[in-house]
Amino acid sequence: MLFYLTVILVCQLAGELIVVGLGLPMPGPVIGMILLFAGLVIRGGIPEGLTRVGDAFLSNLSLLFIPAGVGVVLHVGLIAQEARALGAALLGSTLIAIAVTGVLMHLLTRRQRARAGEGRGETGDRS
After folding, report:
1. Total-model pTM
2. Which string of DSSP letters, residue by residue, matches 59-96?
3. Distance (Å, rounded) from C-alpha 64 to C-alpha 50?
4. Phi, psi at residue 21, to the nearest 5°?
5. How many CB atoms lie within 10 A of CB 50?
6. Relative to the CA of 53, which of 20, 36, 64, 115 has its CA 20 to 30 Å away?
7. Smallest Cα–Cα separation from 11: which of 25, 24, 29?
8. What is the largest distance, in Å, between two alpha-carbon atoms of the chain?
9. Can you state the percent helix, strand and coil of the chain, rounding each to 5?
10. Cα dihedral: 19, 21, 23, 26 (round 10)
11. Using one digit for the tens of pLDDT, what is the confidence trace for 104-125?
């Protein structure tokens, strides 16, 4: 378990180094997750120990929100000043996410129905 925890932290450190070294405008842990994902794809699966470490992180996920909550409380004045922009960004991103999810769900459902129709010998398009 300690080995796989170290693997996760090394991936995060590598992501931080890449972001700082290349000056990328994204969080280092995101790059670290991409590195970990690429490693798992190359390996061809998720080791049991890594699954247990991931499950432990997920079961204690609420603890990881404490620093973010403290940051919100510390900067509540700044958040109040930018409330209109933050509200617009939240509303806009939520609407965009709903629209993209709906379109994607529609396309995937239609594709799945077409494949199911091919499997039964049907050839007509029902859309």
Report:
1. 0.55
2. HTHHHHTHHHHHHHHHTHHHHHHTHHHHHHHHHHHHHH
3. 19
4. -65, -40
5. 19
6. 20
7. 29
8. 64
9. 85, 0, 15
10. 0
11. 999 999 999 998 888 776 555 5
